[in-house]
Structures are given as structure tokens and as C-alpha cells.
Amino acid sequence: MQVQLTTNILKANDAIAALNRKIFSEKNIFVMNIISSPGAGKTTILEKLLLKLPPDIKPAVIEGDLATTKDAERIENTGVFALQINTLGGCHLDANMINQVLEKLPLEEINLLIIENVGNLVCPAGFDLGEDMKMVVLSVTEGNDKPLKYPVIFREAAVSVLNKIDLLNYVDFDLNQYEEDLIALNPDQRRFYISARTEEGLEPLIEFIVEKVRAKKGGE
Ligand SMILES: Nc1nc2c(ncn2[C@@H]2O[C@H](COP(=O)(O)OP(=O)(O)OP(=O)(O)O)[C@@H](O)[C@H]2O)c(=O)[nH]1
Ligand SMILES: [Mg+2]
Q: SUPFAM superfamilies per the record (predicted)?
């Protein structure tokens, strides 16, 4: 019974995600779904990244959190439109939550929609929101064993970002093992190594995202 119920929920979610994807495609909006455990640095990465986008990239952000508008406020301080969804205890965003706020977004004015999912490496992995790309963020303080322990999201994400590399000297994070495990899970994944704090490694990640947005705009 439980298995059946889960399958039905996911089927319903996938149908709405397909609808979202169609709407985003019609409007040439590239959509990123950012997933990590709490505190890995999703919002900090966005705060830095949004200020460095070239003028032809027009972003908006959806912030998913159990409670508070703290992250949306941080994003708004960069001058970028941000909308907060509170899941009221839910451990992930789903396609319907995104669908319900579409009319509140400036869809005619943007070509990049970034969705910061609820901080959690497990639940968000199973729910398609209608995004073009999932980006998983891990920080070095969490340990290099996480890709193998939480394989679903590391396998599914087209992009992985290792954040807080400024702290590498203070932790026993094994970079070689991390990379080896990621390659085993998803050999095609683009891997980035950054410090949102010092901005080391941020530029290649921004270039990658900009290329994706321009490609979608060009109809690819
Ligand atoms: N040393 C260091 N600290 C960082 C870096 N990036 C983020 N932080 C810090 O990590 C903490 C959490 O960062 P957030 O950006 O709020 O993390 P988050 O993933 O958005 O967290 P949730 O939204 O709660 O899931 C903050 O105190 C940041 O200042 C980094 O590259 N290096
Ligand atoms: Mg955040």
C-alpha cells in the first residue's frame, strides 16, 4: 500500500513538473534546482554569483525553506527578485509548489530561474520541479563520504559543487576519494571546486551557467 501511494505521489508530481518545464521552455527560461544539506552554502554562492552575471543574464530566485523569509531577504539584498516558499515542515519543494507561484514571478523579464531547495540531501532528490539542471552542493566540512552515502542526488545532478575549499586545511576531506566516488556515480557530471567566501573557483561555475542560459535562449 505504501509503495503504491508513493508511486502515485511521484506520478502526480512528474505531470506537474512536465507542465512547469513546458512553460519555462516556451519562455526560454533556464531553470536550476540547487540541492544540498543545510548550511553547505547555497545562499552564499547565490549572493556572490548573482552580482557577477553579465547584463544579458536576467535572473530570479525561488527560495525553499521550512520557515522564515531569511534567504529570500538575503537574495533581495543583491537586487535580484526573490520569492520565498515556506513548506511548513515539508523537507523538499515539489512541482506543485513551483506551479502555484508561477504567476508571482516576473517570467517575461527573466531568462534564468534559480530554485534553492530546502536544505536536505535526501528528499529533494526524488522530486522533479521542471528544472533543466540539478546542482548538488557539498561543503568540505561535511566529509568526503557523502556522495556514496547519499548517492541518488549525486548520481542525478548534472553539476556538483564542492564549497568551502578555503577550509580544506582544517578538515580531513579526501579530495581524491571524493572525485573518484563522483566519477563512479556519474562520469558525465561537471564538477566545480569553490569557496563562496573567498570566491576562488567561482568564475568557471558562473561561465558554465551563463553558457547554459545562452544556449537555452538560442533555442537549443
Ligand atoms: N568558510 C566558508 N564558509 C562559508 C562558505 N560558503 C558559505 N559559508 C558559510 O556557511 C554558512 C551557511 O551558509 P548558507 O549560504 O546560509 O548555507 P545554505 O546552504 O544556504 O543553508 P540553508 O539554506 O539553511 O540550507 C554561513 O555561515 C556562510 O557564511 C565558504 O565558501 N567558506
Ligand atoms: Mg540557504
A: P-loop containing nucleoside triphosphate hydrolases
Please, what sign has the CA dihedral across residues 150, 151, 156, 160?
positive
pLDDT at residue 105 is higher than 60: yes
Say if residue 6's pLDDT is above 90: no
Pocket of ligand 1 (CB under 6 A): 36, 38-44, 71, 119, 163-164, 166-167, 195-197
Residue nearest to atom 9 of ligand 1 (CA): 41
Query: Rounded to the nearest whole angstrom, what is the distance from the C-alpha of residue 42 to the centroid of ligand 2?
Result: 5
> What is the C-alpha radius of gyration for the chain, rounded to an integer number of angstroms?
17
Q: State residue 67's pLDDT score.
A: 95
Rounded Cα gap, residues 186 and 103, in angstroms: 35
In this predicted model, what pLDDT tens digit does every residue of 47-84 receive, in sequence order? 999 999 999 999 999 999 999 999 999 999 999 999 99
* Domains of the chain from N-terminus onward: 2-217 (3.40.50.300)
User: Distance, CA 186 to ligand 1 centroid (Å)?
Assistant: 25
To the nearest 10°, report the CA torsion of 120, 39, 140, 200. Answer: 120
Q: State yes or no: pLDDT of 151 exceeds 60.
A: yes
Residues with CB under 5 A from ligand 2 (ion): 42-43, 71
pLDDT at residue 150, rounded to an integer: 98
- Which helix (H) or strand (E) covers residue 64, if one does? strand 59-65
Query: CA-CA distance, 80 to 95, in Å (whole number)?
Result: 23
